[in-house]
Amino acid sequence: MTSPLFARLFKWTIFIMALTGAAQMPIFKRYYIADIPGLGWLADFYLTNKIHYIFGAVLMFMALYLLIMFILAGKKYFRLSSSGLLRVVLYGAVIGTGALRVIKNLHSVTFDPFTVMLIDWTHLGFAMLLGVAAMYAFFRGRKPYLEKGVGMRL
Q1: Between the CA atoms of 93, 132, 50 and 106, what dihedral angle is there, to the nearest 10 degrees?
Q2: Count of Cβ atoms closer than 10 Å to residue 132 Cβ
Q3: CA 154/CA 150 separation, integer angstroms
């Protein structure tokens, strides 16, 4: 349904999102990973936050593109596998909670501390669940997102 270039760009986007998302926590400085030459930028919260936002926008564009392609063309020939459905739901949850985090960080928006904590922890939890689901699919033989539908045209 997509080109190999699109798939490669999607994987790089997810890798950069995971890396800069982990950099939002001060783990790279705390565990001296940022002291490795060339990785000092990982300790700069504001830089990694901006990179995370930029690639978040790229991820949202790619997800929307895939959704439109699936609805317009793929739905006739393919359906989501159970593994693919789980990952799509988790991607949706991560993107949705990520959008809430962006709204939370706007200057004109104020949430109470419990809501802020809830948004942060659900975003982190869904991202970790997505990582576990992706690793499970990878180690079980690269489970595809799509499968041919029974009785569907090819």
Answers
A1: 30
A2: 11
A3: 10
* Measured distance CA(54)–CA(39) in Å, rounded: 19
The two structure tokens encoding residue 125: 């939890």
Distance, in Å, from the CA atom of 17 to the CA atom of 55, rounded to the nearest integer, reads: 6
Encode burial over 50-66: b for 16+ CB neighbours within 10 A, e otherwise.
ebbeebbebbeebbeeb
Of 78, 83, 81, nearest to 149 (Cα)? 78
Q: Are 116 and 84 in contact (CB under 8 A)?
A: no
Q: Looking at residues 47-66, what average pLDDT do you find? A: 94
SS3 content of the chain, % helix, strand, coil (to 5): 70, 5, 25
Q: What is the pLDDT of residue 67?
A: 87
> First CA to last CA across the chain, in angstroms?
13
Residue with tokens 């997505």, as numbered in its chain = 130
Q: What is the pLDDT of residues 34-44, one digit of tens each?
A: 999 999 999 99
Please, are residues 56 and 17 in contact by the beta-carbon 8 Å criterion?
yes
Question: Which DSSP state fits 149?
Answer: P
Beta strands per DSSP E along the chain = 78-80, 146-148
Note whether 106 and 40 are within 8 A (CB).
no
Q: Which residues pair with 36 in a beta bridge?
A: none
